[in-house]
Design brief:
Helices cover 34% and strands 14% of the residues. It is an alpha/beta fold.
């Protein structure tokens, strides 16, 4: 049975053709299309929604009475009202695994760039200030042999730790994760309470999901525990760090530097001091932004959607329990109504 799919950004022609072999597809390529009447008209009849970068609200869900499946081109799902989706028995699919290594590359890029002051010194050369050999005031820090503390030790956290341990001889510590005996054996990793990890790590890399327990997890008290020359890396979500507390810690020398790929507000507001601070490397949320990985993420979303709309288990989903209790939903009779 052919169904209706709304595809919002980041699909190539081959992926659209794959969807159109089985279903009717309305494709919206530009971010501003989300406000168009055509988008909302398509959503009103949609059974599936494939999306990247769309803020999905309860109101948007209420305007899509036939929606069965959302395939997000992302791993994180804090942009989705999970309680509303569960109430409506709407399956939410995501794209773990395919971006693990690329995001870990970005995390380690930030470690290297902040430690060696690469962006600051590259700008210094561009400005024509390289007149002689640099002095101690521009020296960076070694990465090899240092202690890397992972706040969160899932797929991406483990991949960053593996780069640090096997490639740079770093001592690995981890927290905010269940015990990982295999990784402890492989990498010599040591599980510590958060406070101890902050106090003993040269680099603190945050890779936890955003939820009620992790919002502003790294606050002023946490930053106080870090070494004065410690470096904070964030590749998770901006709201995991108290941004104002971080700015103060960087300005006052409580910590040495920060490498950030995510922020409380994205894009960064013009008035933010972070991208202008010499001890900050600020990237525009590029964690998975390579041609190869973004194509693979979009393909995973397409595969998830085709499997789910055919009544099969998708490759990866956030709330698979809805499949066991899925019934049709009626805007007239409410969630759980059998039609």
């Amino acid at each position: 049975m052919r169904k209706n799919i709304v595809a919002f950004r980041r699909l190539n022609e081959e992926q659209l053709a794959q969807l159109r072999q089985h279903h009717d597809v309305d494709f919206f390529e530009h971010h501003e299309d989300a406000d168009s009447p055509a988008f909302h008209a398509a959503l009103a009849k949609a059974h599936g929604l494939i999306t990247a970068g769309l803020k999905v609200t309860p109101q948007l869900i209420s305007n899509a009475p036939h929606l069965e499946t959302i395939a997000s081109i992302s791993v994180g799902y804090d942009n989705y009202p999970l309680a509303t989706l569960n109430e409506r028995n709407i399956l939410l699919c995501n794209t773990p695994d395919v971006l693990t290594e690329t995001t870990a590359d970005t995390g380690f890029l930030l470690i290297m760039a902040t430690a060696r002051r690469a962006v600051e010194l590259a700008d210094w050369v561009k400005d024509g200030q390289w007149k002689s050999s640099i002095g101690p005031d521009l020296f960076g820090s070694d990465v090899h042999g240092k202690t890397l503390g992972m706040v969160g030790f899932g797929r991406i956290g483990a991949a960053i730790a593996r780069r640090g341990s096997l490639g740079f001889g770093m001592q690995i510590r981890y927290t905010m994760a269940s015990p990982k005996p295999e990784l402890e054996k492989e990498l010599g990793a040591l599980r510590l309470p958060l406070e101890d990890l902050l106090a003993t790590s040269d680099f603190v890399c945050v890779s936890v999901p955003l939820n009620r327990d992790t919002e502003k997890l790294i606050d002023s008290a946490a930053l106080e525990l870090m070494k004065p020359n410690g470096i904070l890396i964030n590749i998770s979500r901006g709201k995991v760090i108290d941004e104002q507390a971080l700015i103060e810690a960087l300005n006052t020398g409580k910590i040495g530097a920060a490498g950030l790929d995510v922020f409380e507000q994205e894009p960064l507001p013009a008035e933010s001091p972070l991208p202008h601070m010499p001890n900050v490397v600020a990237l525009p949320h590029i964690g998975s932004a390579t041609r190869e990985t973004r194509a693979a993420m979009a393909q995973r979303a397409v595969d998830n959607m085709l499997l789910a709309l055919a009544g099969n288990d998708p490759i990866s989903s956030v709330n698979p329990e809805v499949l066991t209790r899925r019934v049709k939903w009626s805007p007239e009779f409410g969630p759980g109504a059998k039609l």
